[in-house]
Structure of Tryptophan 2,3-dioxygenase:
Amino acid sequence: MNSKKHPKAFENESSIHTDFKENMTYSDYLSLDSILSSQQRLSNHHDEMLFIVIHQVSELWMKLIIHELKAATTAISNGELSSAFKMLARVSKIQSQIIQGWDVLATLTPSEYIEFRDSLGKASGFQSYQYRLIEFALGYKTKHSLEIYKQDEAIYEQLQEALLAPSIYDASIAALHKAGFSIDQDVLERDLTKPYETNESVKLAWKNVYENVDEHWELYELAEKLVDIEDWFQQWRFRHMKTVERIIGFKQGTGGSSGVSYLKRVIDHYFFPELWAIRTLL
Ligand code: HEM
Ligand SMILES: N[C@@H](CC(=O)c1ccccc1NC=O)C(=O)O
């Protein structure tokens, strides 16, 4: 084996290859053997391939979103807002890409899906831990979501770590405070394992930012980047709900929920409630 340590290998992250082969190929680098042999259909149905690929593509994009959100949160905490903007702009573009995927999935008809739905058993998007990691990174900390991962230590630990970490909104509120805005102490010291709840002092601070854009240009830009992300997230939830309705109507979900009625309810949730509330006040 012609295996050497790559001079530029970054060793602090567990998923990094520290070895490279002299004659490394395109497939080696991208681990295509493993990626392209991971579309195992459980039925003989032609359309199950579409179903698997669309989920895998979404999960890959989610992986990148998590990577960007984590780094953006650190950058905001360090006062490096410009570098956070670059990453947040990328997150929005990825969200827009994932949403395009619904157009492809909507080519699946109810008659086609019903032919392989039973082979999915109780599996459901409910169990997408990367989706929960994104919700947590944005501040929607639902502790109860961890319960289904009790048997899976690695996933449980990742979620636990994300539950305890400040979200991008916590970091943004801390940035408001550092800029001199008065923020209630109980928000600054909030229990990070709980979902963020709307607060009057945060609302006033953001309102002030929007009313005095020239003085707070960076915070204003940060706010708009967060609104972009929430806007795209809601569009994902809406397209998911409508695509599910057109494919399974109001049948119960395989994950045990009421299905579309449940998906309609989650649309009511806000990640950054004050950033939306101030729109009415300005
Ligand atoms: C035919 C396609 C699809 C159908 C019929 C469908 C159906 C559902 C239903 C009924 C639920 C509620 C939970 C349950 O009881 O199962 C759900 C949740 C979920 N689905 Fe899908 N889904 C589809 C495609 C997708 C795709 C492509 C993704 C992308 C990863 C996805 C991700 C999720 C996520 C993350 C949840 C949890 C949402 C939450 O709890 O807020 N689904 N899905
Ligand atoms: N909850 C879906 C099943 C489903 O969509 C699904 C099943 C396995 C793996 C991913 C899925 N996608 C999202 O919920 C249903 O009730 O038909």
Notes: Residues 55, 117, 120, 123-125, 248, 253-255 surround N'-Formylkynurenine (ligand 2) (CB under 6 Å). The chain has two domains: 1-38, 39-168+186-250+257-281. Residues 217-248 form the longest helix (32 residues).
